[in-house]
Every structure is written in C-alpha cells, then in structure tokens.
Amino acid sequence: MNNNYKLRLFVLFSYLSVFFLLGVPLWYKLTTIHRADLPITYIKELVDNKLNDVHLKLPIYVDSQINDIKESAILLKDIQSEINDILGKNNAGLDISVNVLDYVKENLDSKNENANQILKIVKGDNNLKMVENRDFFSSTATTVEVNDLSTDYQKSIRELSNIILNNILGVNAKNINTVIASTKDINDGEKTGVSIPYIQDIHLSAILLSGDGDALGWDIESSMSKYITPLREMLSSVYHFTVDSDIVYYNDLNLHSQHAVNESTLAHILDISEISTSDEYSEQIGLTLAIVFPSREVGNNGLEFIKPKSIEKLDGSEKVSNDINWEKYLIPRWGSLIINKYPLKANSYLDEEFLHPIMHKFSIDLLEILGIGSDMMSPYNSLHMFKRSVVLRNLLKSVDTLQSLVRLTESFKQMAVPEQVLADVNTAIGIRYEIINKINHFGTSNGINNNIVWDELVLLSNKLVTVCENAFFDNEMVQQNFFPDEHKTAVYFPFLGPIAMVLFLGIVNMIKDRSHIVDSIK
Amino acid sequence: MALIEVLHRRATKLGLLPKVIGKLSIVSNILVLISIGLILCLPLDGQYRRTYISENALLPSQAYSYFRESEWNILRGYRTAIEALIDKPARVRNEVISSWLTDFGMKHAVYDNAADGDTLYGVYNSQRGDGTEAIVLAVPWYNTDNEVNIGGAALGISLSRYFSRWPIWSKNIILVISENPHKAMKSWVDAYHNSLDLTGGSLEAAIVLDFPSKSEYFEFVELYFNGINGELPNLDIVNVAISVIEHEGVKVSLQGLNLSEMYTSSYFNRLKTLLFGVKNSALSGTRKLYGNEAFSGRRIQALTLKACGTEGHDITTFGRIPEAIFRSVNNLLEKFHQSFFFYFLVAPRHFVSIGSYLPSAVCLSISFGISAAHSYINNQYITVPLSDNSSILALIIFFGSIAISFIFLQINETFLQPHLMILAFLLISFLPLTNIPQPLITIQPCLSYRLKSFAFIYISLVLTSLLVMNFALAFGMGLLAFPLTFTKSCSEMITFKSKVINCFYLAISNPFIAIFIFVSIFEDDITNFEVFSDLISSFKYMGNWTWAITCIGWFTTWQMVYIANLDTPRSALDGDTKKNL
Amino acid sequence: MHTLTKYLKFIQIIGTEYQTHVVTMRFNFFIPFLLLLTTNYVLADEEKNNHTNNWAVLVSTSTFWFNYRHMANVLSMYRTVKRLGIPDSQIILMLSDDVACNSRNLFPGSVFNNQDRKIDLYGESIEVDYKGYDVTVENFIRLLTDRWPDEQPKSKRLLTDENSNIFIYMTGHGGDDFLKFQDAEEIASEDIADAFEQMHEKKRYNEIFFMVDTCQANTMFSKFYSPNILAIGSSELDESSYSHHSDVELGVAVIDRFTYYTLEFLEQIDKSSTLTLEDLFQYYTFEKVHSNVGVRKDLYSRDPKDVLITDFFANVPNIIPDSSSENESSNKYINLINLAMDQYNSNSKVSKNKDNALSPSVLSKSQNFNNIEYIEDTRTAISSSIKTLLVTSVVTLLCILFYLQEAESSKTFTK
C-alpha cells in the first residue's frame, strides 16, 4: 500500500514537472509575439526636446572697409552683442548663435570662396542700403553702403545686425519658428499647396503631346542640357534628378472635346491622367513639363482662350521681343503645362529657339515647386539657408517617424516587432548623433570648410530619414489578424482544461490518501 | 452533483432500477413503438422543412432557356429517323446515330459489351472550359418497362446538338445511349471509370431521360432519384430539378404517386410519400431500374426524368428541363457538397433531413440492444460468468451461422427455387412444434439465453452501422426482424399454444418469408417470387448489398434465435436448477 | 483641434489645483489670450485642410461565377473614377476573380453592369493591379499600411501623403464585423480600423471616404477610431444587401442595388459639379435600396454638406495661369537660374580650356593610336602565323609518333 502510494506520488510529480517545467515555457516561447525592445524612453525624450541638443553656430565674416582696424574691431563687437541680444529674445526652441568674425584676419579657405558668408561694408552715398552688385548675385558676399555710422549709432548697428540675420544668414525668428513648429512650412509656397515637401529623388519628364498623328521632332536634348542641366548641377547636393522625354500622339489632353473651353473651365475639361503614369520611374515624385498642341479638330482658329502675346528675352545686353502663341499654366505639385494655340503642321520640328522661353519658364516653375528661393536674400545665401533648413527638417521628420513607430508599437500590442526594426532604430539614432555632433562642433576656430560640411550633412540627414522610414514601414510588422482573447481561451481551454482537471483531482486524491495513510499509521 | 445524488437516492428508495430491469422486454417494445411513432410524426406540420437551394452558385432558371420551336423541328427530324431504326439491330442503330453525332462535332465511341448490349456514347468537349468534369445525358434505348424510348433518344440527340452550339459550357457533355437502363448502363459506367479510351473527365451529374410515348406531348414528369444501397443524390440537384420543372409549368410526381396526391397537401399524402420513399429506397435495385441507379456508388448526382401522359406540354418543354439543369450544374466550380445527402422528400417542396428521421432507427437498434440485455440478465443464469462454456459454444454457433449465411450468399439466381425456399423455411420454422429435433438436438437453457443475447447484440450492431448510410434498409430490417424478440426460450413455454405462437414469430421474422410477404403486400412492381432472383442479380450486377446484408445480418440472427428456441428437455432443465441451487 | 483640447485640458488641470482669487483673476486674463492663439491655430489648420491629390482603392473580394455582380460593381466604380480624372497610377484595382474570361460568360471578354449591355466595363485600357489569388487580406492590409518588401512595384503601392484624399470601395460577401475574402479567409473590421490608424500615424491621408456594399455592411466601419474618415455602408446589422437585376442571357445578377443607385447619382457628375456628399446620402432611400444605408460622420471634421463629390471621386487639377509678367515675385527664381547658368558655363569653359591645352598631345595620341593600330595588325599577323606554325608542328609530331608506334606493333606482329 505504501509502495503503491509512493509510485503514485512519483507519477504525479513527474506529470506536474513535465507540465510546468517543460510545457509552460514551451507554450510561452511558441505563442508570444516577438517584440524587439525599442528604446522607447530615449525616443520619447527626443520627441519632447526636439532640437534641444542642437547648438548651431553660424559664422559671419565682416569686411569693414570704412574704418581702420581698431574701429572695425569695436564695430564687430557691437554688432556681435546686438545680434546676441536679438537672438537671445527669441525663444523658439532652437539654439542658434552667430559668430561675428573679421574677414581680413581670418585665414579663410580660398578654394571655396562661396562657402563663407560675408558682409562687406563700403562707403557710399546711401546709408545702410544693400547694394545689388555682381557679388550679390554670384557669391555669398553682401555689400552694404554706409554713409555715416556715427549718427544714430545704435540704429545703424541694429540695422546691420538685421541685415546679417535676415538677408545673409536667414535666421530670423519667423524662419526658426516655421522650421520647428508643427505646421512645418518653410515657405509660403507650401501653405498654398504649390510646392512639395523636401524629398531627395525627383524625376523630371518633358512630354510633347499632339492631338494628331503626324511625325514630330523636337530639340529637347540640347534644350534640356542647356537650361535644366545647370540647375541640376547647382542643386546636386540637395536634389538628385533623373530626366526623360517623350512624344505622345493622339492625345491633346481633351482640349478638342469642347468648344466652349475658357480659362475658368479648363480645369474641368483637362485630363492629365493619361500622362501621369508614375510607374515608369522609381522615384516617388515626378514633375512634368507638358507641351500640348491641340488636334486639327479645333479648327483653323485654334483654341480661342489663348491670346498671342510677346515676351521679352534678354539677348546679350538688349531686350528682344518674341511673339509666342502659347500659354503656360502651373499645376501645383505636378509641373508646367504649355498649351499652344494652333495645331501642328505635319512633320514639324521644334527647334531650340522655340523651346528656349518654354525652358526658361519651366525652370522658374520648377524652382517654385521645389520651394527654393527667397525674396530677401541673394541666391547663394538662399541656397545655404535651404540646405540648413533641409537638415533641420530632416532631423525633425526622423524624430516624428520614430515617435510614430513607438506609438504604433505601444498601441498595437499584438504587432510583432522584428529585430531589423531595432537595428534600424539604433542606426538612426547613431546617424542622428553624428549629425548633431557635426553641427555642434562646426564653427570651432579652425575655419573648417563651410559648404562641404552642409552638403555632407544633407546627405546624412537624407540617409537618416530613409532609415527611419524603413524602420517604420518594415514589411514584417503586418498587424496580425484580429485574434481576440476569447478565441485564445476557446482554443486552449478544451485542450488544457481536461488535463488540468485530471491532474488537479489526482493531487486532491493524493492528499486524501496521504491523510488516510497518516491516520492508518497512527 | 448534489442533485444527482438526490435522484440516485430517490431511485434506490423506489427500487426503480430493478423494476426497469425486470421489465426490459417491455422497454424494448416501447422503444419500437416510439420508433414507429417518430416516423409517423414526420409528416406533421412543423416537422418538415421547405426545400431551399444551399449552393448559391446553382441559380436555377436564372438563365433563359432557348430550346423551343426551332429546335422542335430538328427534334422531329431525328424522331422520324429514329422511328425507322426501332427494329434494327444495335450495331446498325449505333452506326447511324454515330454519323449524326459526327455531323455536329461530337466525338463518339461504342462500348462493346456482348452480354449487356453495346453502348454508344459521345463526348462533347467544352470550348472554353478546362474539361476535367462532365455532365451526362443518358438515354436508355429500351426503358424500364421495355418500351422503346423514342422521344428520349430524339431528345438526347437534339439536345446534344443544341448544346454544341453554346460556348458557355465549363464542363464536357457526354451523351450515352445504352440498351437498357440497368445492366447496360451500369456496365458502361463501370467501363468509363476503368477501361474506356474516350473519356471526358470525372462525371459530376447525370440526367436520364425517359420519354417513351409516341405522342409529342406529355402531362407531367416523374422524378426518380433513389440510388442503390440507400444512396441519394445531393438534395440541391433534386431541388434544382423540381424548381426547374415547376418553373416550366409542369407538375412533378415523386416515388410514383399520382398527381392529386402530390399536390394536395395533407398529412396522409405526405406520409404516403415518405413511406413510399422509404420502401423504394430499401428495395431499389430490385424493383424497376430507371437508369439513375446505374450511377450509384461514385458520387455522381443522378436523376431520372420520366415523361408521363400524352397531352398537355410539348416535348420541347421536357427538353428545357435538362437544359436548365445543365445550365445550373454548369455554374458550379466544386462538387455538390453544400446540401443534404440523406433526406426524404415528403412533397415536391418539403423534406425532412436525417436529423429528423434518424432517431427512429436509433431507437430500433437500441431496442434490440435492450432485448439482448433482457436475455442476458432476466433469468437465473446471470450469475454464470461470461467465459463460461455456454458463451463459447454460443460464439461457435454464431460463426457457424455466418458460414451458412455465406454459403447462402453464393447461390446463383438461376438455381434458386423461390417456391421451394419459402416452403422449406416455413417448415423449418414450425419444426419445434413436433418432437423431431428433441432427441437429436437439445440445448441447455443457459446456452439458449446466451445465444439470443448475442444474436440481438449482433443485429443491433448491424443496424447501427447501417443506420446512416441506408436508413430504409435498417428501418425495414429492424421492424421486420423485431418479432424475433418476442420469442421465448423453451423453459418459459409450457402450453402448446405458446409454442405455436413462438413458431409463428420465428416464421414471420425469417428474412425470406418476411421479404416475400412485404413485397407481396406493398410492392406492385415486383412479382413476389421473383424478388429473390432480383435481389441476387442486382447484388451481382448492380452492386446492391441488400441481399448480402439480409443473409449475413438478418439470416444469421434468425438462425441463432431459431437454435435458441429449440426444445430443452425437461429433465435437463430440472437438473440444472438443482445444480445451481 | 488636437491642440485646442490639449490647452483646454491644461486649463482644467490648473483650474483644479489653484483656487485663489488672484489666480482666477490671472485666468480671466489668460484664457481669452490663449483662446485667441489657439483659434488662430485652429483656423490655420482648417485653412490647410485641402487636398492636392486623389487616390482610389477599389476592392472586390468574392470569387465564383455567380458573384459576377461584385466584379461589375467594382468595375463600374473604376470607370466612374477614371472618367472623372483620377489617373491609373493613383487607382488600385483589386479584382478577385476573372469573370470576363470565365468559360460561362456568354460574352467573353466583357463585363456588363446592366442588362441592356450598353457599356462594356472590361473594354479597353483597364489596369488591374491585384487579380485573382493576389487579393488577400494580408495584401490589402499591406497595401494600406505600405509595408512591402523592396521588390514591390510602384504601381501596386498606395503612395499617398498627408494631402491625399482616398476613396476606398469594398464589395463582396460580408457579415457581422467581417468581410469574406476569396471564400477562404476573412478580414475583421478591427483590422481595417487598425490599418487606418497606422495610416493616420504616418500621415498617409488627408481624408478617407469609405464605401462598402456587402451584407451587414454598416458593421464594417463600426470600429474605426482614426480622425477624418467618412464611411457609408449599404445595410445594417442582420440585414442583407440585395442585387438589383439579372441578365437572362448571362444567367446571373449583374449589379447590386446600392451600387446601382450610387452610379445613377454619379452619372450626372462631371469635374465641374458642385453637388455634395450630402446630396448623395439623401439620394438613397429604403424603397430603392431595400436596406438601411448607414453613414458614419462622427470621425469626420467637415460637414458632408460642404464636401463636394469631386473631392473624393475626381481629380480636378488646380491650374494656375501665368502671372502677367515676370515681376518681382519670380525674381528670386530668376536670380537662382542665372547663377546656375553662370556657374555651369564657367565650369564648362574651364574643362574646354583643359581640353585645348591638351590638343597637340591629343593629336599625337591619335597618331600613336594609328601606329599602335598598325602594330596591332602586325602583331596579330605574327601571332596568328606563329599559332598556325605551332599547330602544324604538333600535328606532324603526332603523326610521326603514331607511325612509329604502328611500325613497332607491325614488327611485333610479324614477329
């Protein structure tokens, strides 16, 4: 009887041990969803202090040609304190400081002259007025004519500081606020919906459309290389463009269909869906230049709402008038549309002279859609400001993406989080750290080359955004099909329930028997 | 838990259990009554359901049928040509018809079968379908009443020609013209699945057309769908057929009932349809074979449409019925699986499913089980352990009975003499009345009781395993074999009258006598003595298992009970009781 | 709206903590100022609430021939949406079965949504993005959340951004909180709601208009919780949606009631229409649709009275004509362009100079090249002759060896 009892006890314990020591861990391991441990608190901190660890120091080189060395040193010091004052009042959340340095003294890199932003103060008739000379248009040097500094010195200093902040560096309060505020506009263009948000890879298409089927040719390659390629080169550090061209026959965007086409109904009749095929290129955004000739069905008078006009062209130094029979329309976030009044004759060839004004207008539209350019600054300076804003906005965008990722993983507890996502997040944090280090340590005395560092930072920040997007859009994080807990109980209960019942009753029996045996021994 | 304890205590107080055990035979009888009662309840309002199409893909009569006047002319042409072929031998016939099939592009071949007759069949491959499945249009040249199926043949050919003009088929169409609807058709079906070269894929459904009348008009359609061994086609195809027939404005009759019975809704009409359905299902294979039985056993949904009457609707109406059924079956992608495979129709648009009628068969088999328990428990031999000699002897007798049944199974129908057989069994049944077996064979009462309990357990098992697949056979066999439980062991019989009654029960529960009586009373299509040769021939050629089950299940049981009822010598009886005391 | 609620909560919290009179005084000052700021913000938000592109996701989920009407439903919506200008690159069309080429189709290659068969929906130039067995629950969720492996082509992805209005149309067989895909799996309404939340998290839509035509359709959008979604379904819980009519030649139903009346309404819309979504909602009645159409508006910020049909169904480009002259506003761009041209020209001049400097050596290079050519020729000639010499010598050697061997063996034989 005792032996029997011992055997039963042994059996019971072995069952229990298998159940708990083997079964439960196995079940747990096989049914839990793999969720990698994302650095949630770190990301939350990043979100709360979005750009708090960025300490941007921008150098400005002042070349004062109106006074001698000693006086200019005092002038520079006064300007510096005024600028610090202005920047100190701005509590937009981004730590920007400006170093006012003497142009003559500093040993500047001569290879890349346009890297350094310079303020030249010259003697002139007007007081405190910017001069739009050759330097203004082709370099980062801004010249200010000063007549008399001594009268109302403070006002002059303040004026000079404002010129530095607004017209050269572009770090006024409005710009900073718009960069880090949640609306994320950088220019008015995005508010009105004309320009696109920054994205590195863009495709440009040039399409010639004709309503009829006669053979056509155009000088697109040379026109493109003459007018678009320079732009591409200039913007090559921030935008990567791919270009293609196409001729489409028997398609005039539906212009021939209705006779009462006028400008107000144009949007309702025009059908640009056929030429909006984005499948032919791999970039996400494509901008188009479409040149349309209506088909002969519109008649000899052509499209009525297009009035011939003449535009002025700068040919060398004289203005030449050009008669054109087309009208340009800007379609926001899509490109330019050139609608010609008359249909094309057979075997027409569009030469460069015809395409030149079109290309010019398209370049303007392109820049408007990209959102580069500032009214107040010289082109070089506006490019610099654009690069800086790109880097800052990319930093913000990446943190936003990481925050969205964290919010997702927290709200969808059933979603698996693969290791790749964790690796991406860590890479992203690493890149971000590198970028901020480079920003913060830029501007220390050694006179590091300005331009290249910002280019490098643009590339790095684009990479950061890509890595963050990859982390968010990881293809293994498909939310598991809705599997409520009731289903789990329904599946597990009939399976585990009986076994557990049997074990439990066995234990109860054993305890009863044990008490019997104890009693019997007594 | 506590409630059960209370009930348990109450039951023991009343002494319920011993009482029930004492009256087990009555319980068994009550169960049989319940079983019959359940069947009788089914035609009551509320117990049956309205038919519906389970498979949404079928969409009967949604597509317009175009087999109308222009096709009628073509049909007339074929009909006149067929009338000329009536007396020609099969070879000539098949050649002529083959040439017609070639005319409209049907591939054809002849299945040569000297014993049963050559079968001509044609395969039309669907133009755009994938050709892995086929629907069969079967036309037996001589129908089940041995009339020439002129209208059916003409319809079959003209329908095939009509179908070949339509591009919408996703399944192949096979036209089969066999000599008769039973052996020839079945041999063709078997050959198709085994040896034939020209095939059209797996057979999804089969429609057999029977239009023997010389007139071009018919009054109503009789629909037959009972297969061999209780197999039925999927209820969906039956519902589709009935829905199509009624959509054409034609009345449909089931199980051979007449129209007024079908279309007057009353309890008795429904009961009649139900019971006839049970009877026809049990006897299918032995009674008239309409053609759809040839397709049983292979998951082919087969129906027979028989046109009756000579006035009313024209033959193209009859042709539109298979056309619409074919269009519906054409819509399917999967085999029929949605609706019931076990059901009984109580009216064209009402049915009962297996859940409703199965309890009665279950009750029957349980009643046999309880009889077995009764034989085992309610006598003084309950204390005798199971491993006793008597049990072993009972088992030996059991195996011996099975062996005899097997021998019976091998009887060839030509050598069968039904009259002799019936007479012989009658004599054997009444033998115990005389004193002949007494000195030769005596059995111990214990053995007698054991034999009976084993016999009843055995038949209960047989019935249980037969319940779902062939309800009709199980129900019929159970009911007809039930008098076996009324027989009493020798030790309980004292008067001559009780002995006579005993032998009477034995006689009427003899399988062959019972079948003979049943068929004589209820079945018009089979002449009573021929039922056995029909059973054996359908077992051999049509794959009907009724004969086998009757022999091995029922006959074995009867044998064992018969032996159990043989006289026990008085002295042995007294001796035994003395011993046990 | 989000910020406003945050501010209000902030006020509430402070209000409960500080009860002094002084603080409340400060409050009376504070609140209007705050509200002013926040309303500005809110207004700015609403001004910004415009979309710039339109996308459509049209899904049919059922297979088999007798579900012809679901394909016809989806193809009809596809035709409408294309007619109103949404390009194929912005339409994702998912057809779960091919009824046009089904062998049971009496009109092969065509799909009709009306028994008069006037319009062939499957005619020319339709682009089906997901067909047949590709239409699965997983692919649908991946499409909405844009979680694909790298190889997924652009045409099969939903590349929307925060200014996209998306019209999502689903049809098939559905039930209580689920939709049947391909007769084999189901998608739960919670799955769609979670997918929309992921889209909202990543700002992949401006507004979504969700239309579903199945049985018990209204349950499909009962679980949505992300903002800016407007949903409409064809029938209530425990209600079926019905088909409109069948074609007796085809033998199947060709269109569903809800979609039929939707199309009837949309046929009168062109790109310039000013009809609103409220007009569409009013157009459905129980007598027409035979089921209760449900609309979910609580997640949507605008009033359907103010929402144009073309906001979701059409792609009306915003065409800005050229400003009269190149005035100051485009000066900033012209400056940049001139800068680019100058830089490019100066760079190319430098490279041209370099080229000129090299010209004598270029010439000599080419001459050298000719020499080299010549030398190459002779070299090749020599090498080829050497090759042939080698080959012939090897061959002759082999012959000699063979002959010798034969001689030896013959000797042995004769021996």
Automatic annotation (TrEMBL), chain A:
Q: Which InterPro entries match?
A: PtdIno-glycan_biosynth_class_S (IPR019540)
Is the Glycoprotein keyword given for this protein?
Answer: yes
What are its GO cellular component terms?
GPI-anchor transamidase complex
Pathway assigned in UniProt: Glycolipid biosynthesis; glycosylphosphatidylinositol-anchor biosynthesis
Q: Name one GO biological process term.
A: attachment of GPI anchor to protein
Source organism per entry reads: Tetrapisispora phaffii (strain ATCC 24235 / CBS 4417 / NBRC 1672 / NRRL Y-8282 / UCD 70-5) (Yeast)
Check the record and name the Pfam families matching this protein: PIG-S
Q: What is the name of the gene encoding this protein?
A: TPHA0D02450
The family note in this entry says: Belongs to the PIGS family.
Subcellular location as annotated:
Endoplasmic reticulum membrane
What stretches pass through the bilayer? 7-28, 491-511
Instruction: List the membrane topology term(s).
Output: Multi-pass membrane protein
Q: Which UniProt keywords apply?
A: Endoplasmic reticulum, Glycoprotein, GPI-anchor biosynthesis, Membrane, Transmembrane, Transmembrane helix
Give the protein's recorded name. Answer: GPI transamidase component GPI17
UniProtKB/TrEMBL annotation, chain B:
- Give the Pfam families listed for this entry: Gaa1
Transmembrane stretches, by residue range?
A: 20-42, 357-377, 389-408, 420-436, 456-482, 503-522, 542-564
Record's keyword terms, sorted: Membrane, Transmembrane, Transmembrane helix
Q: Which GO terms describe its biological process?
A: attachment of GPI anchor to protein
Instruction: Cite a GO CC annotation.
Output: GPI-anchor transamidase complex
Q: Which InterPro entries match?
A: Gaa1
Q: Does the keyword Transferase apply?
A: no
PANTHER family attached to this UniProt entry:
GLYCOSYLPHOSPHATIDYLINOSITOL ANCHOR ATTACHMENT 1 PROTEIN (PTHR13304:SF0)
Q: Which protein are we looking at?
A: GPI transamidase component GAA1
From TrEMBL, chain C:
Catalytic residue list: H173, C215 (nucleophile)
GO MF entries: GPI-anchor transamidase activity
Q: Which pathway does this polypeptide act in?
A: Glycolipid biosynthesis; glycosylphosphatidylinositol-anchor biosynthesis
What residues form the membrane-spanning segments?
27-44, 388-405
Keyword annotations for this protein? GPI-anchor biosynthesis, Membrane, Signal, Transmembrane, Transmembrane helix
Which Gene Ontology biological process is one annotated for this entry? attachment of GPI anchor to protein
Cross-referenced PANTHER family, in alphabetical order?
A: GPI-ANCHOR TRANSAMIDASE (PTHR48067)
Q: What is this protein called?
A: GPI-anchor transamidase
Organism of origin? Tetrapisispora phaffii (strain ATCC 24235 / CBS 4417 / NBRC 1672 / NRRL Y-8282 / UCD 70-5) (Yeast)
Q: What is the lineage of its organism?
A: Eukaryota, Fungi, Dikarya, Ascomycota, Saccharomycotina
Gene assigned in the entry:
TPHA0H01490
